[in-house]
């Protein structure tokens, strides 16, 4: 590690100026939980770090009528605190709470998790399921990019030199809409995700699946939308047969994707289980073998069925 300067940026323009000034020699540091290891192991070679961890505007979470917007330097502990008690966002709470240890969650940021672009990044699948949109800022100005398009390859994101990820936003969830997350790790604590699934579910007034988005972690070069599983559920009554069918479809897709890899056998079976868990978390059981989405219990018609 050959760091000559660490600058504590006080706002976004200052961080962007520093990144522009030092060019290839500089990198952003937020919580430092990934980059310090990368620097120590010589996977990253820079001499200047631009610390964004005290930029106030990057540490805020705001909910407006239509959107939820989170600053890139928000930590996992802050995510857990903000969404506490909001069942519809249980996927964000759970993904955040399963990252590393309390010490890691106090430092590690959501922007760092995205920009590090690990296939196992826990916060990426629920954000993909929410179809999150990122704001990236640099000398040339601001641009918005969907998270799905931002992830280019393992360890590579759509970020030009001198650009900073500033916010992550998604459409505010309403009744009948929910996002959930399920993870299979090696050990309970400090486990980097071996496999994860996030599900966004929306039920219409006829109790059919109006919208569903499924995303996975650790079964591709980065977090991925699982569109075949989505297509299998869309428009259907969410009974056990439909959900089981979608889990089989997902398993077949994983088998095709990982063909020839030693992890294929394990992952194609395991993904069925964690997908079912993520879907079930989004539902309440009607007692007759059928389900309705968690949020729909607030609708009078569905409430009568409980
Ligand atoms: C013991 C341990 C356990 C862990 N467990 C988990 C786990 O269970 N699940 C999991 O997902 N991760 C885990 N991690 C990985 C890590 O904690 C997360 O990926 C974390 O979210 C990274 O955030 P950070 O703020 O520390 O990023 P940093 O280390 O500060 O930065 C990571 C990368 O992103 C870039 N970057 C950061 N912020 C921005 C920004 N706003 N704009 C542009 N570039 C930016 C940096 O330049 C760097 O390249 C673990 C790490 C450790 C050390």
From TrEMBL:
UniProt key word Oxidoreductase: yes
Keywords in alphabetical order: FAD, Flavoprotein, Oxidoreductase
Pfam families, sorted: CO_deh_flav_C (PF03450), FAD_binding_5 (PF00941)
Oxidoreductase recorded as keyword: yes
One function term, GO molecular function aspect: oxidoreductase activity
Entries under InterPro entries matching the protein: CO_DH_flav_C, CO_DH_flav_C_dom_sf, Diverse_Substr_Oxidored, FAD-bd_PCMH, FAD-bd_PCMH-like_sf, FAD-bd_PCMH_sub1, FAD-bd_PCMH_sub2, Mopterin_DH_FAD-bd
Occurrences of domain FAD-binding PCMH-type (ranges): 1-175
Origin: domain of life: Bacteria
Name the record gives this protein: Xanthine dehydrogenase family protein subunit M
Record organism: Alkaliphilus serpentinus
